[in-house]
Structure formats: structure tokens, C-alpha cells
């Protein structure tokens, strides 16, 4: 199993289990420590396994390496490092036997308890608390306290629950877009990723979530077809939430990363086609959506392939890889934060001022990363610059290395610095993506919810609907609840099951996916963030060789993409039929 970074202030043990002063502690047998990374890949059906309890508290700024599951403290670090070497077969067999023993002991534990290394009772208590909050909080919202009659209040309450269900499934599935690669590479532990994402997703939904939405989902349905059919439209909006949520729940259960936007689109298409006829659907828009199944992963794979190769060419083959990584980090963060800020954050409507705000955000992010690197890894940078003889052999060959050439990566202190630098960069980029995701994707649940509430309250005559602040917060709470209870499932697929990730690979995939989504959205190209990230992770795997990508996992994901829109449509037709029957008795 690939070891992971965790955040801990503790110091190292004599065997070198942990980190001292926030950096990797290297065992003295460095040649076996950084051996061939593909020799011990063990396929695991369970993405995360519990670790030994530690008495120390964990906090974000410090990285720590833990291998508490292994009988040998450095047995599987070979799957984490990127240098060459041979691994002892007997040691690999011993690891497999130990992991099988651990797995057999954990099969009886619930998935949430297993993923977060908590007791079954604690996991059950968290689930019950979330369920109680979801059922009780709507009674304290202004949406149910506006002097409405009992029938309207009941339907509003049910509508809020459907919106929560959709938001819950968005959190369970889409949180992997921001945190999957960071967990897979070890830059964050699962628990840290979920807690960080919970804060940022809710903040993004509340502060950045759109306050205005259209009754029809972004050009998928022709609004005139349903003019004057408020009851049917209300049933269709509820069915779209229920249908998309149902398919997302199925996909999340199996760990398939699918597009929540495509789920909603499929649901709306099914409803419009059956209850409004072929003329109710903008087929050109649907064609653009389906084309993104091909465009998104291909663009993500190509860009991540090139980014990873650039890292290996200009960082790994540099005379001093650690210094090269430390110098490149602020530049990459500046570009990434500026792009995300300009595309996703609510900046000024005046272009020069908005550009200045985005550049200021990028500069602040670059300065922050540079300070963190100098503080946490400064002593290693001094050590690496003072010990020049080790990398000289590679330096003589670096001039003749092409972009696509393959070669052994850095070792020792240099590798400590490189992984430390890219680990911090991953954490920062994951935080920005999580915040932006909360603001962007909450509309998939809140848009139909707000439209349905507007119909109930007699305000469906206009095309634009104002979303109350408490409804935005409700959607943010749903996303947080979903990622806490089921988010680990899709995180496991993105971070563990497609290909083995390290900080450099994870950053390459994350940076490439963000760049492709930002550029494509500005150019108006049909793109899916989920599909792009999956393609980016595959591209990093292909950069290491075709055998580094698990074909069976990719096959399952592609099939789930193809089934998403038809499944949403079928569920929507079924739910609409049920809801219209029920509403005929209620209204």
C-alpha cells in the first residue's frame, strides 16, 4: 500500500517512521528506500485502512510519513518514490500476507469507520446527527415561515429535503475533484482532506453561490413548452433532483466519478422529452455535453502528461532538483491562483480591476508558498546546496535529456525537498479548487430547488429566480454532509485506483485539470471538471508507461459516464409519473 503524508508535530522514531522538523526522514539504506515503484503494487479493494492510534494531535502545516500498517517500516515506500532499484520479493510477499490479515479483521467495520479510522459507534453517531439535522433544520428556515398554508409548507419541506438529497450526493461524488489527488499522493490524509473540504465547500457555497438561477437548466429545455403548466413543471423539477441524486448515489457507492451537471442535464432531458415532446429539448446543447465525454479526458490527459514530463525534465534532471522545485513552486502557484481567481471568484465587473484583483491573489499565494517552503524546508535547501558531489553524474547527462526521455529521479535530501515542495503546492491548489467547487456546483442542487420553491410560493412567472441566503447555506450543508459520509469512496478511485500517485504526479494532474477547465470555460468549449481530472490522472499514469494505468478501473469509469445521461432520464420519467400522481391528490 502506498504510504501517505499525514500532518503531525511529532518527531521521528529511531527507525525513521516519521518526520523531523516537517520533512521526510530518510533511512540510511537509501537505495532500498527508493526502489522500483512498480514492484510492489498491490490491488486493494478497500481504499483506506485504519492506522494505529496516535497520542499526538495533527495539524495542517507539518507533513509526516506513516507506514503503521506494514511489518517493515519502509517496505512499501518503493511505490511512493520515483527512483530506480530492485525490491526483495520475500518482503513483498510478507507485505501481502500482512495486508490480507488486516483486511480480514476490518471487513466487519462500516465503510465510514474504516475510512476515517474511527469506531463504528462514532461513525453511526455522526450519521444519525446529520440525518437529524437534515430533518429538523428546514423548520427554522425562513422559507417555511412566511405565513404559508399547511399544504404549501408541507410541499416546501419535501422540496427542501429533495434539494438536500441532491446536494448530499454532490458532496459524496464531486469532492474528489478537489481532494482526490491530494489524498492519493499523501499530501493530505483522508480525515484532513474531508475536514478542510467541509469548511471550504460550505464557505464557497455560501459566499460564492449564485443568487440568481433560471427556471430551466442552462439551455437544455425550451421554457415556452411548459408555460402555464406549473404543477407539471414543479413535478419535473422535483424529479430532476431525485433522479440525479439517485444516479449519483449509485455511482458514489461504486466509487465512480461522474459529472453532477450531466446528471441534472440527463434528468431534465428525460422529463422534457416525455412530457414536452422532442421540441422541448435543445438537442444541440445535448450534443455539446456528450462531446465533452471525449474532449475533457483527452485534454486533461495530454496536458497532465506534458506537465509531468516537464517536472521530470526540468526539476528531476536539474543539477539541484530541490532548488529547482523550490524556485518553480511560487511561479506555478502564481499562475494557478491567478487563473482560478479570475475564472471562479466574484471579482469586479470592470476587466482591468478584475485582472488586478486576480493578479493580487496570485501574488499572495506565491508569497505564501515561498515563505512556507523556506520555513519548513529551508534547512534542507541549505544542506542540498552544500553537498554538490552526489548529483554531478546526472548533471553531465541532463544536457542530452529530451522532454520524453525516461531517467531515474533524485534521491536522498533532494527527493525530500521535491516531495515536500509539491506536497505544499497540492494542498494549496486543493483548497482553492474546493472553495471554487462549493460556489459553482451548489447551483446544480439549489437551482432546481429554488425554482420549485418559487412555483409553490406563486413566483414562477419570471425566468429569473432569486435564491435566499438560507437556501444557499442549506445546499452547502448538504454538500458537507455527503462528503463526510461517502466522500471517501470516489476519493479512493481518483487517488488510488487509476494509478499510483506521488506529490509530483498529483500536482501535475491537479494543475493540468484546473488549467484545462479554466481555459475551456473561457473559450466556451464543452468540458467537464470530473472527466478532465480523471483524464489528467490517466495522463500522469501514461507518462510512466501504459502498464501504470489500471485498465479495469478506467473501463468502469467510462461506462458510468456513458450511462449517466440515460440513467438520469429514465429515473426522471419514473419519478415525474409518481409525483404527478401524488400531487393530483394533494393539490
From TrEMBL:
- What's the superkingdom here? Eukaryota
Record membrane topology: Multi-pass membrane protein
Q: Which UniProt keywords apply?
A: Membrane, Phosphate transport, Transmembrane, Transmembrane helix, Transport
TM stretches of this protein: 122-142, 154-172, 193-212, 232-256, 263-286, 292-311, 323-344, 350-369, 417-436, 471-491, 558-578
Its localization reads:
Membrane
According to its UniProt record, where is this protein mainly located? membrane
- Which InterPro entries does the annotation name? Phos_transporter (IPR001204)
Q: Which residues form the signal peptide?
A: none
Q: Family membership, please give it.
A: Belongs to the inorganic phosphate transporter (PiT) (TC 2.A.20) family.
Q: Which PANTHER family match?
A: PHOSPHATE TRANSPORTER
Task of the protein: Sodium-phosphate symporter.
Kindly provide the name given to this protein in its UniProt entry: Phosphate transporter
Q: Which organism is it from?
A: Salix suchowensis
